[in-house]
Design goal:
Layout lengths: L3 H45 L11 H7 L4 H12 L4 H8 L4
Length: about 100
């Protein structure tokens, strides 16, 4: 029984370390997917509301159909247009003070 005790401790240590590694990689994966989702939403917003930055706009009917889904992006683009020439306002919007 004495020989099995160190082996059990080693196995428990390996299980514990594997659980920590698994938890860390899952958190990193979730953060990466959330970042990618945010970037995809930004690209979609630029495609639909691209006329704000000089990109060709899709047909008006498509834009109007997607407008309820684009409320957050539309507000963001309007805020960016309002703060285009004010660097302090742009800095404060980065920190999400308001």
């Amino acid at each position: 029984m004495n020989k099995k005790q160190p082996l059990k401790k080693l196995l428990d240590a390996i299980k514990h370390n594997w659980a920590l590694y698994d938890k860390a990689t899952r958190n990193t994966a979730v953060e990466a997917i959330e970042f990618e989702l945010g970037e995809m939403e930004n690209i979609f917003g630029l495609l639909v509301l691209g006329s704000f930055v000089g990109l060709p706009a899709p047909p008006m009917q498509i834009t109007l159909d997607l407008l309820p889904e684009m409320e957050k992006h539309f507000t963001l683009m309007l805020n960016k247009v309002d703060m285009a020439n004010e660097p302090i306002s742009n800095l404060l919007s980065t920190f999400d003070v308001m």
